[in-house]
Specification:
mainly alpha; about 75% helix
Length: about 180
């Protein structure tokens, strides 16, 4: 008997949502690690961060904050960034998402896009500042354009992830 079967028996809806969260985070980290070339990579948004933000505003919060930390550590190790930078950023983003959950549910799309832009800009500026403190010379332009592209991707991320945890039931044939 494994953990997933126990979870499925207790609450099948939560088990499906947990699987959807895990698979979407794994897919987002995988897509983040694939290189698209030196001209596209600086403009590419942090998909894992967008997925963490989505699930923290829509999913079960305490599990997601620890999952965000783990995904961030995995991302730090895979990209050779300072250990804890992405982990802290993802955890902080999940916490902000949990605290803004009610506001985001009541907001129209333009207001939600503005909040997403602010969260992505804050994370990007934190990463840029740490790069400066470590003696690197990160380009500020790429750290400003990536959050803009991420904000434009937010409606697509919302649409894809909203349907990820929903299992469609087949209509039973009439008797």
């Amino acid at each position: 008997m494994n953990f997933a079967s126990v979870l499925e028996r207790r609450n099948p809806r939560n088990a499906r949502q947990t699987r959807a969260i895990a698979l979407s985070l794994l897919l987002a980290v995988t897509l983040d690690l694939v290189s698209l070339g030196s001209t596209v990579d600086p403009l590419r948004p942090d998909l894992a961060l967008l997925v963490v933000l989505y699930w923290s505003t829509r999913g079960r919060a305490p599990i997601l904050i620890s999952a965000a930390w783990g995904v961030g550590l995995l991302h730090d190790i895979a990209t050779l960034t300072p250990l804890g930078l992405n982990a802290g950023l993802y955890c902080l983003t999940a916490w902000v998402g949990v605290s803004l959950r009610k506001r985001l549910e009541a907001m129209p799309i333009p207001g939600e896009l503005l909040l997403v832009l602010l969260v992505l800009l804050a994370g990007s500026m934190l990463s840029w500042g740490v790069g400066l403190l470590l003696g690197g010379r990160p380009l500020a332009e790429t750290h400003l354009l990536s959050p803009l592209v991420g904000t434009l991707c937010w409606p697509l991320v919302r649409l894809l992830l909203r349907n990820a945890g929903i299992r469609r039931r087949r209509a039973s044939p009439p008797d």
